[in-house]
């Protein structure tokens, strides 16, 4: 299983707490597995864009459970104050709240950086479970979706899940496994995967759906 996304998030947070890097990787893997189980390939999103909020949310909830206060960089604090003014002025002019893209443009920063700033502020204080962590109309993730299941709090369980996932992948037929690897491990869209393999997008979509169903069924069976 490609752990690049998890390692990147763990590296980001290890400098903001006293937890071991490998422990944060283990926690992030829980979020990665949750993202794989929830991913809907029919919406055409790259898997990395979908998975990062789950990985990040898992790590942040773990740190909060451990009693850590998430430190917000001074630059982000300044951006947060500026964003408050942007929202107020935008509401006055347009009679609605700006979306993330509009706020990032007003602050002259990338959309990704603004979403990181917003997520940092959200995780500093208790929030409604219905609070969203992005502004993607087709992939509007709520905070309650990122809260880890109680049964996944153990590192041992996480390691067992990783093993089950690898074993389940090995049981798939080659074509289906290759398609899942392109979509999930190499982070290609369905169209890019179809072009790489010389097949139709419809075929890729069907194989992804079938493969995910088989993975979930196999992992559930092996869990008992």
Write up this protein.
The protein has 224 residues and is mainly α. It folds into two domains: 141 residues, Up-down Bundle (Butyryl-CoA Dehydrogenase, subunit A, domain 3); 45 residues. Helix content is 68%, strand content 0%. The protein is built from eleven helices and no strands. Helix 1 packs parallel to helix 3 and helix 8 packs across helix 11.
Tell me roughly what share of residues is in helical segments: 55-70%
Sequence of secondary-structure elements: HHHHHHHHHHH
Under CATH, the topology of the largest domain can be stated as Butyryl-CoA Dehydrogenase, subunit A, domain 3
Main sheet, how many strands, which sense, barrel? none
Q: Measure the end-to-end span.
A: 22 Å
- How many distinct helices? 11
Q: Whole-number radius of gyration?
A: 19 Å
Which spans of ≥5 residues are poorly predicted at pLDDT below 50?
125-129, 133-137, 146-157
Count the domains.
2
Q: Could you name the CATH class of the largest domain?
A: Mainly Alpha
Q: Would you tell me the overall average pLDDT?
A: 75
Number of strands: 0
Q: So, CATH architecture of the largest domain? A: Up-down Bundle
Protein name: Cyanobacterial SigF-related sigma factor
Organism: Microcystis aeruginosa NIES-2549
GO molecular function: DNA binding; sigma factor activity
Keywords: DNA-binding, Sigma factor, Transcription, Transcription regulation
